[in-house]
Amino acid sequence: MKSLERLILPHLKSITTPLLDPLQFAYRANRSVDDAVNLALHSILQHLDSPGTYARILFVDFSSAFNTIRPALLQDKLSQLSVPDSLCRWITHFLMDRRQYVRLGKTVSDSVTISTGSPQGCVLSPLLFSLYTNCCTSSHQSVKLIKFADDTTLIGLISNGDETAYRREVARLVSWCGHNNLQLNAQKTVEMIVDFRKVTAPLPPLALMDSPITIADSFRFLGTTITRDLKWEPNISSLIKKAQQRMFFLRKLRKLKLPPRMLAQFYTAIIESILTSSITVWFAGATVRDRLRLQRVVRAAEKVIGCRLPSIQDLYISRTRRCAGRITADPSHPGHGLFSPLPSGRRLRSIRTKTSRYTNSFFPSAIRLLNTK
Predict the structure, then answer these.
(1) How far apart are CA 324 and CA 223, in angstroms?
(2) Which of 20, 38, 48, 244 is the right S-S partner for 362, CB 3.0 to 4.6 Å?
């Protein structure tokens, strides 16, 4: 069955991808987790560059998201996306009347028939969920609804203390979930408030289905730790700690007299991949001290391996240019318009920024890098 799913997956993608919500970043060519985080941060930082503004970010959690898909509703949504009726019927038939049981050791439960959700480990499940939630979007320009599969984030860009649009979109999201059989987990849904105003008053709390939402000082957003002050020290410290733990294995391999070439391959796959996780998001905004801490891990690995390794700075530059190149080559990317060429066509138009945190975010930094080629 998985082989058949793998044959259907690219066909279904080719039909639906042009009609997908631009702010759904999962399972699309030339899109990544970093793109979702960078665009979210760009929206926030651009907004906070104006006086009297702040942002409220709601990190939504669904309960057993993939298990709540209703095949009949999904079929209607697929039809609206111009998926052929024969394929719609096949997907509906595939999801309905599935036999399921639980095995624990030698004990096996009675089997039951279910017609809701998608099978565990199903190749099509992530894309089907993205299509199922495709019509869940924001209707107000000051509220961004960013999705990566079932990870959903609602960003309210608040001006002059007016939260009307943000709260209305939260209510719309709750209503939409109720009509589409998605269960919001109010206990795991958290909110973060980013506010750099000098004079502030306590902000009114937000409730989800009569449950108060927890206000967090930091949150792990798609693998990157975001803090309310938008500083990167906690995220970088976490990466360094993980990388240093893996250095133990590199030293063990050195003692086993593995050749430098193999040690370097191990470093690239196991340690460098940690140090550079979502590097396009945070490196430009990192402090000099944090950059030196990252480079010290690289130098320690160089001493163990006995050869030169790419510096963190060089890895950041190459990956940022590659990421920016993907975006400029994809007119459908929501960040494509930010890379606007000047009339000469030789350089890109710089983004006007007032604060260093905005200046050192991905899009302004990427444009500077591309202009210095």
Answers:
(1) 20
(2) 38
Q: Are strands 218-221 and 224-227 parallel, antiparallel or unpaired?
A: antiparallel
Query: Of 111 and 357, which is predicted with more confidence?
Result: 357
Per-residue model confidence (pLDDT) at position 119: 74
The residue among 189, 203, 195 whose CA lies nearest residue 154 is 189
| Positions of E strands within 46-189 | 53-60, 98-100, 103-104, 107-108, 112-114, 143-148, 151-159
Q: Which long-range contacts (CB under 8 A, 24 or more apart) does 137-143 make?
A: 137/21, 137/23, 138/169, 139/169, 139/172, 140/165, 140/168, 140/169, 142/166, 143/169
* Dihedral Cα 90, 94, 97, 101, nearest 10 deg: 170
Residues facing residue 227 across a β-bridge: 218
Query: Residue 22: how many CB atoms within 10 A of its CB?
Result: 14
Tell me how far CA of residue 188 lies from CA of 60, 61, 132, 191, 218, in angstroms.
8, 6, 22, 10, 14
Domain ranges of the chain: 1-227, 232-372
Which pLDDT belongs to residue 31? 85
The top-scoring range by mean pLDDT among 66-70, 115-119, 190-194 is 190-194
pTM equals 0.90
> Rounded CA gap, 84 and 305, in Å?
56
Q: Which pLDDT score, from 0 to 100, does residue 1 have?
A: 65
- Classify the C-alpha dihedral 362-47-56-26 as positive or negative: negative
Residue 209 has a pLDDT of 80
For the four alpha carbons of 80, 149, 136 and 69, in that order, the dihedral sign comes to positive
**Residue 230 CA from chain centroid, whole number:** 16
Q: Residue 297 above 90 pLDDT?
A: yes
The tens digit of pLDDT for each residue in 17-66 reads: 888 899 999 878 788 999 999 999 999 999 999 999 999 999 999 988 88
At residue 236, the pLDDT reads 97
Which is it for the CA torsion 288, 292, 293, 294, positive or negative?
A: positive
Residue 221 pLDDT grade (very low, low, confident, very high; cuts 50, 70, 90): very high
